[in-house]
Amino acid sequence: MSEYVFSPPPPAVLPVSGQNARFPVNRIFCVGRNYAAHAAEMGAEVDREAPFYFLKSAHAVRQSGAILPYPPGTRDLHHEIELVVAIAAPTFRIKPAEAMAAVWGYGSGLDMTRRDLQARAKEKRHPWDLGKNFEGAAVISALTPARNFTPADQPIRLQVNGGLRQDARICDMVWSIPELIADLSQYYHLAAGDLIMTGTPAGVGAVAAGDQLAGGVEGLAAVELTIGPAE
């Protein structure tokens, strides 16, 4: 007899570039307003005292190339292209100078957002969960091991139906990767399988059923997504 009341769902996993191995996903930490130009386009300011976060669940993960049905409850689905950092070592209360030792690799990701639900939550000072944490809200490319990629000033771009929507460089981030890892480690025991979506540059916008999204960080695998009809 099974020890479970019902069969546990299979783990969320991501492919690894050039390998047959898979990276199992644990938690997804998302950084808000980490590009000043994006904060400005959303009518907000960057908090220069400390980064802030929201979380996505592992059920939000979809691999690059997925078809995402237009999600329920929204009429304003937005794209946000991001650099994704994959953690592979237990990390707790460290300093930025120590942080990169915890990094397993990197990917390109889409933080899909039900913008109207997020805006409603902001107005009422409610959490952002309905706007940010839903099935298919984290679409992520194959991961590249850290030994094969060094974050610097690489371009980060997104096209929708072949037209350029977002175009920046990852060095434009307000909070660097070591700073983010070190800060999160003050509040969480970071663990293997955790992902950090490091924020999106300016140029976010709405997508509709039938739209084709493609983009990412130069030097990493691209992330691609098709928006399907609503269920």
TrEMBL record:
Q: In its keyword annotation, does this UniProt entry include Metal-binding?
A: yes
Keyword Hydrolase listed? The answer is yes
Protein name, per record: Fumarylacetoacetate hydrolase family protein
SUPFAM superfamilies, alphabetized? FAH (SSF56529)
Residue ranges annotated for the Fumarylacetoacetase-like C-terminal domain, each copy included: 28-226
Q: Name one Pfam family in it.
A: FAA_hydrolase
User: Which InterPro entries does the record associate with it?
Assistant: Fumarylacetoacetase-like_C, Fumarylacetoacetase_C_sf
Give the record's keywords alphabetically: Hydrolase, Metal-binding
Q: Which GO terms describe its molecular function?
A: hydrolase activity
Q: Taxonomic lineage of this organism?
A: Bacteria, Pseudomonadati, Pseudomonadota, Alphaproteobacteria, Rhodobacterales
